[in-house]
Amino acid sequence: MAFDTYTTLNISSFVSRAKLDGFSRLNRIAVRINPPQALARNLDAGSFTYYAEAVTIPGIELLTNDLNLNGPPMTYPTRTDYRPGTTITFLVDDKMSQRLFFDSWMNYIIPKERGFDVRYRDDYIGKLTIFQLTEDGRDVSYGVELYEAYPTSVGEIRGNWAEQEVARLDINFSYRYWRNLSELELSNDKIRETLLGVTVTGTRDAGTLQSVIVTGTRKTLDDGSLVGVTVTGTRSR
Predict the structure, then answer these.
(1) What does DSSP assign to residue 236?
(2) Which distant-in-sequence residues (6+ apart) come within 8 Å of 7 by Cβ?
């Protein structure tokens, strides 16, 4: 395939395509959490989906060794490093549901009621699925599943009388490996149903994910109606 330098390097062409196709923006993210089966039964829910204000989509690296023969050394891969560990910032609803959920998971790993005996690894690992939404919020452009995942730390929640912002909760996760979701998986109706039911500051709203305001500019639908949930949790009027 020929490399079209005019189309690729022309600023006007670049701006036109940007307006048409948009860019991938990391401010429209949903996270589906599948906790360990026993914990899910205790919480009476198979999975939880929360809106994430910030997330680190994991990377991947091939670890290499040098092979020294005649001349300069050659490198060859020895194993895959999925860069285990990611941090996700969740918005916390008025019932502190997100905090209560992760408190339960952390205590399930090393339960106080059992004298702080650590459970077997297979008993406390779960799965995370991170969905990156398109700029208009109507489709899923990217999905990644993190396997054998569990929280390693639950961040502090600080507040005072002078602040009226929504509480945020930083969770660090460990996982063993991840994989991309295929285009067919991303178009699955079950995923769409999951995203339409995502919890944002305690409310469920079919238009929530396409209406998240990050810059403060109000977003309108084609009919001129406002769809407003800001990242601070206040609804646009």
Answers:
(1) P
(2) 13
pTM of the model: 0.69
Closest by Cα among 125, 134, 126 to 186: 134
191-200 residues labelled b (16+ CB within 10 A) or e (exposed): beebbeebbb
Q: What is the DSSP string of 143-193?
A: EEEEEEEEEEEE------TT--SPPEEEEEEE-SEEEEPPHHHHT-HHHHH
Alpha-carbon distance 176 to 125, whole Å?
A: 10
Query: Do 30 and 49 touch, CB atoms closer than 8 A?
Result: yes
Give the pairing of strands 212-213 and 229-230: parallel
pLDDT digits (tens, 9 = 90+) for 47-90: 888 888 888 888 899 999 999 888 889 999 999 998 878 999 99
115 is written with which tokens?
Answer: 């004298």
Length of the chain: 237
> How far apart, in whole angstroms, are the C-alpha atoms of residue 52 and residue 217?
19
Residue 107: DSSP 8-state = H
> Quick check: 49 and 194 in contact, CB under 8 A?
yes
Ramachandran sector of residue 113 (left: φ over 0; alpha: ψ -120 to 50; beta: rest): alpha
Radius of gyration of the CA atoms of the chain, in A = 21
Spatial separation of the C-alpha atoms in residues 190 and 199, rounded to whole Å:
16
**What phi and psi values does residue 192 have, to the nearest 5 degrees?**
-60, -40
CB burial string 172-190: b at 16+ within 10 A, e below: ebebeebeebeeeebeeee
- Tokens representing 169 are 């909760």
